[in-house]
Amino acid sequence: MTKFRYCPLCAEELEAVTRDGFERLSCTASECDYIHWNNPTPVVAAIVETPDGVILVRNHGWPEKWFGLVTGFLEKNEHPETGVIREVQEELGLEAEVVSLVGLYPFERMNQLIIAYHLRAEGEVCLGDELAEYRRVAVSKLRPWPFATGDAVRDWLAERRA
């Protein structure tokens, strides 16, 4: 849980209370009803399939051998399908189309809910500012990793085999 110490509305101390079976931070001031719900943040993820394979990306700051899916936060009032297409355009410079929803995946460590899609794209990759590099991996060689968007890759590969 995020550890705020003071209420953002009245500056009184916050205390942990159990509400609806979950621990929440609640304002101690009797006239303030602020509760920090700490709900997960929605994040879109793209399994970008091209004629030459699936594109995996490495963000700046990641170890050199770490590659993952294109991901990004939704904008206010943005539909997840629109958001995932926008993220692929911003990060790879590709026009893409959504093929299908792969699934929803909680990423507890970051308090996120990943909304994963399969997209098809073609063209020349032009990396956006957030990415250090990319690679294309043949679908036959693609392997899931044991956390976060790796679960979406696992499910997508299983669906392809079925």
What characteristics describe this protein?
162 residues, alpha+beta, 6-stranded mixed β-sheet, 2 helices, 16% helix, elongated
The coarse silhouette is elongated
What structural class should be given to the helix and strand makeup? alpha+beta
Report the helical percentage: 10-25%
The average pLDDT value, as a whole number, equals 94
Summarize the helix and strand pattern as letters. EEEEEEHEEEH
β content, as a range? Answer: 35-45%
What is the CA-based Rg, rounded? 19 Å
Q: How many β-strand stretches?
A: 9
Largest sheet: 6 strands, mixed
What separation lies between the terminal Cα atoms? 39 Å
Our count of helices gives 2
Which residue ranges are poorly predicted, with pLDDT under 50 across at least 5 consecutive positions? none
